[in-house]
Amino acid sequence: DTGVSQDPRHKITKRGQNVTFRCDPISEHNRLYWYRQTLGQGPEFLTYFQNEAQLEKSRLLSDRFSAERPKGSFSTLEIQRTEQGDSAMYLCASSLDGGVYEQYFGPGTRLTVT
Amino acid sequence: GQNIDQPTEMTATEGAIVQINCTYQTSGFNGLFWYQQHAGEAPTFLSYNVLDGLEEKGRFSSFLSRSKGYSYLLLKELQMKDSASYLCAVRDQGYNKLIFGAGTRLAVHP
Fold first, then answer.
1. What CA–CA distance (Å, rounded) separates B13 from A1?
2. How far is CA B4 from CA A36, A105, B86, in A?
3. Which residues of B touch A54 (CB under 8 A)?
4. Do A42 and B96 touch (CB under 8 A)?
5. Which residues of chain B does A102 touch, with a Cβ-Cβ cutoff of 8 Å?
6. Whose CB has fewer CB within 10 Å in chain A, the N or C terminal residue?
7. Over the stretch A28-86, which tens digit does the pLDDT of each residue have?
């Protein structure tokens, strides 16, 4: 399978704990995006990378969230001191650079904070 | 501000045609995308418009009017498997992030 993959698919954690999610994009895609989706809403942009450079971060993203893409391949999204409001589906997407290229989404990581 | 509006829910009959509308007001525009999302699954790409007019792909067509900030997705010969959420998304300037609407949940009945 050569699509976008995410790990884990599900994560249950207690409030205050830290969690880390991983995304492996399609191999030739140099752009990688993180989105968050809650029930009944469309995905909401969090941040994106071109190669290893993080080029934009949503103003909605608190300091508890950090993302990396150290070698321009896979990416990690870490949430520190989780809160119940962080419960959502975290989606990763990748694309080629520019033009008509659509973003391909991974299956997502569903986070539940208890 | 960024605002994308689409109806919350629609129902249609198998074999029929349905049109899902989307209106947008965004600070930048570099294309409009439609995605399909089945419950619990990732969004999958359906269509893309950057110039005014109609783009056709099999049973799916999408229309764009940039001056009106308006798009629609037309689904023909509806099948039960078309029951899903349909997401309208505007790409921000610079080929960057997508700004999504809340999605339209389509239910196809026999």
1. 35
2. 17, 20, 13
3. none
4. no
5. 33, 45, 48
6. N
7. 899 999 999 999 999 999 999 999 999 989 987 889 999 999 988 999 999 999 999 99
